[in-house]
Write a structure and sequence with these properties.
By secondary structure, the chain is mainly beta. Helix content is 6%, strand content 43%.
């Protein structure tokens, strides 16, 4: 039995709902592939065949296209009338569209490898996008402008303009897509960003590698009125291509409400002996930012501004000599309109726990403070004055005068001291 006949036997089941594509024509297979997808719920390509499409192919709802072992060349001459893009595959509106296996080759002609748009109305749901490889698409390997509760899995995206793109829509009303899992992706050697998110909500990246060529591994920049609600990276490695010495692994510029990074690594290279930014958070909108259990190594550094904006920072490992002096872990909590508290650990070998004040310069303990091993306070060679403090000290502040052996306290705005024998 030949491989083709074996495939055909397996597919001619379930009341004729499955079918095997004919071999590639050698010219234009667009109409044939589309006709099979319109007629059957499950369609498989012939292994080893290379198909050519000249215009976008739509995978209808509740329909699965399996390209395992096959290649599709996107020699697109006719763009999609709804998006205006020269797209190879797009998911149709409704639930359950799936594209798995095979290679999609843009060849520098196709603009988009796979488009999940739903015409910007979010009508694509419960979808699966899992081709083995997408390459050579001038705008993006994957584009999202619609779709909910879907999964992208195990795809290698390379040689495209952007690996994964969610462009800013014409209006924020149309920015309805999200609740999408991106699993075990390999995004590398794309011209611009590995991932560019300008819209979307509740996006979860799990495992995989996101590399960049001197630009950004992931850039989040939603300048619209409706910000991205949450992006989670779990076990993702942000890597710098070894031939580049610049760039940022994860850059947040605008429009993100919550960012969570769990595990994974920010991995730089020693190219030109330069350091690069593992992550950089440039916007106050990403106030809820948590980094837990990640590693920073290979000349990867975090920007100072980014570190100051974090609420939780608990690295598993930070390589020595990579510009990471200072506190290596941090907890931060605050309520809008009230002073925030910051708790930082590590960094300075002489500091086990540092309470860093914000706002008024006070660290407040609502209750008795138990220091069973002793307590020490500010010292000065001379009489203390209010100008010794970055903020106006309140009454009750204590300072030790090391010159005259006196203990001073501030009472009624005046510093009063008593000698210590």
């Amino acid at each position: 039995m030949t491989l083709r006949s074996a495939q055909s036997t397996l597919l001619q089941q379930n009341g004729g709902s499955q079918a095997l594509l004919p071999p590639a024509s050698g010219s234009d297979d667009t109409a044939t592939i589309q006709a099979y997808l319109n007629a059957y719920q499950e369609v498989a390509a012939v292994m080893g065949e290379t198909y050519t499409v000249k215009s976008p192919v739509t995978i209808p709802s509740e329909t699965r296209l399996d390209l395992t072992g096959a290649t599709v060349n996107g020699d697109i001459t006719t763009p999609d009338p709804n998006t205006g893009n020269k797209t190879v595959f797009q998911l149709g509106r409704g639930p359950g569209a799936a594209l798995v296996g095979g290679a999609i080759v843009g060849g520098g002609i196709a603009e988009i490898g796979v488009d999940v748009s739903g015409y910007n109305d979010g009508q694509i749901q419960h979808f699966l996008v899992a081709p083995k490889k997408i390459s050579g698409c001038t705008i993006a390997g994957l584009q999202f402008r619609g779709g909910f509760r879907g999964r992208v899995e195990g795809t290698h995206i390379t040689g495209c303009g952007v690996g994964i793109l969610s462009p800013q829509p014409a209006s924020d009303y149309l920015a309805a897509w999200g609740q999408v899992d991106f699993r075990s992706l390999w995004v590398e050697a794309n011209t611009n960003e590995g991932v560019l998110l300008q819209s979307g909500n509740l996006l979860h990246f799990f495992g995989g590698n996101i590399e960049h060529n001197g630009t950004y591994g992931v850039r989040i920049d939603d300048t619209g009125a409706t910000e991205i609600e949450a992006v989670i990276f779990e076990g993702v490695d942000f890597e710098q291509n070894g031939s580049y010495a610049a760039g940022v692994g994860l850059l947040v510029q605008a429009g993100l409400l919550s960012l969570v990074v769990i595990g994974g690594a920010f991995q730089g290279s020693a190219a030109n002996g330069a350091q690069w930014k593992g992550f950089d958070i440039q916007t106050a909108n990403a106030a809820v930012a948590h980094f837990i259990g990640h590693t920073m190594q290979g000349h990867a550094v975090r920007s100072t501004a980014a570190f100051n904006s974090l609420q939780t920072y608990l690295p598993l490992f930070e390589a020595a000599g990579d510009g990471l002096a200072g506190n290596s872990a941090r907890f931060r909590a605050g309520v809008a309109g009230a002073a925030a508290e910051v708790y930082a650990l590590g960094g300075d070998a002489n500091i086990d726990l540092a309470l860093t004040p914000l706002g008024t310069g006070k660290v407040t303990a609502n209750g008795l403070l138990n220091a069973s091993q002793g307590v020490y306070t500010k010292t000065k060679a001379g009489v203390p004055v209010d100008a010794d403090f970055p903020y106006a000290p309140p009454d009750g502040t204590i300072v030790i005068d090391t010159t005259d052996s006196k203990i001073y306290t501030r009472i009624g705005g005046v510093w009063k001291g008593v000698a210590v024998a």
